[in-house]
Write a structure and sequence with these properties.
By secondary structure, the protein is α+β, with helices and mostly antiparallel strands. The chain has helices spanning 10-25, 34-49, 95-99, 145-155, 174-183, 194-202, 218-230, 244-252, 263-266, 318-323, and strands at 55-60, 76-77, 84-93, 106-113, 125-131, 164-168, 186-190, 211-217, 234-240, 261-262, 273-278, 289-291, 294-303, 309-317. The strands form 2 sheets. Strands 1, 2, 3, 4, 11, 12, 13 and 14 form an 8-stranded mixed β-sheet that branches. The longest helix has 16 residues, at 10-25. It starts with 9 loop residues before the first helix and ends in a 15-residue tail after the last helix. It binds 7-O-phosphono-alpha-L-galacto-hept-2-ulopyranose. Residues 93-94, 168, 170, 192-195, 216-217, 220 line the site of 7-O-phosphono-alpha-L-galacto-hept-2-ulopyranose.
Amino acid sequence: MALFAEDKNLAMELVRAAEAAVMASGRWFGLGNKNEVDRAAVEAMRFALHGVDMKGVIVIGEGEKDEAPMLFNGEEVGTGAGSEVDIAVDPIDGTRLMAQGQDGALSVIAAAPRNSMFSPQDLFYLNKIVTGPEAASYIDIQAPVEFNVRIVAKAKGKAIHETTVVMLDRPRNESILRKVRAMGARIRLIGDGDVYGALMTCLTGHETADLLLGIGGSPEAVITACAVKCLDGNMQCTPYFRNDQDEQKANARGITRETVLTLNDLVKSDNVFFAAAGGSDGDLLKGVHYHGEHIETNSLCMRGKTGTIRYISAVHSRKKLAEMGENIEYDPTVNEAN
Ligand code: VTB
């Protein structure tokens, strides 16, 4: 039986969890405290998830149990009724962006059949390549940067100087940056949030980049892979070792410099769900906005099996949500702005 056959509503439940995360953390927008952005988002998302009919286990979460009190790797979420699922969460991908009042923060969550998501464990970073459907079958992370930029441009009928590469603005990506610049391709440097960066390349008709390259977080890579599956894009990763210790730990589980993680290695099933809600305004989704008694959220949800992408703009009543005990009220620990 197709897993989730009875769970057509799971996508909507995941949207609700992402909405809760942005409504709670959005209160901290621009206040300079990324820890509070994360705390508020985690608490709200966890509260929302516990009401969902599923037997979920957090595979990609806030960290190991001894370091993350909530949404830790291995935590069981959901009512226990329904399908057994892996859950991957980043309550706010780009907490720094949110805390600094910058665009591009996104709450993301994905679900897939139990034991289908890659577990990064001590492999914290991956070198990534992501592109949308048009060039999906041509990219090769083991090929030179120039090859991948050229093949994506060709597949999309673009000149090199019309092709946009998106990557995290980090020193570790400097060599890739130089090669792309030398080709004359356009470059979108993002401060944080490479799940968003990947979405920019895969939402056909809405794309604001053609190819994501560079080294980013491995938890985010698994979440990205779920979104890429829903969008018929493609993604490949290779390990990035910061030091010998990273490499030794990875080698112990059979991951070496030669390892390529394909899209199917990152998430084995096609029966995946992905949801995202705008934390701050961005290319694809407006962020959360507060209008007195009401709060506006903008989300998308996707299902791998059907490929359906739904954009959901919602207006929430603070009063009714507060009566339900949902954690979206203005956080009293925040100094009353003047
Ligand atoms: C990456 C990226 C994330 O943080 O994990 C990055 O995948 C962390 O990189 O989207 P550094 O350790 O170099 O800061 C994000 O940008 C946001 O969580």
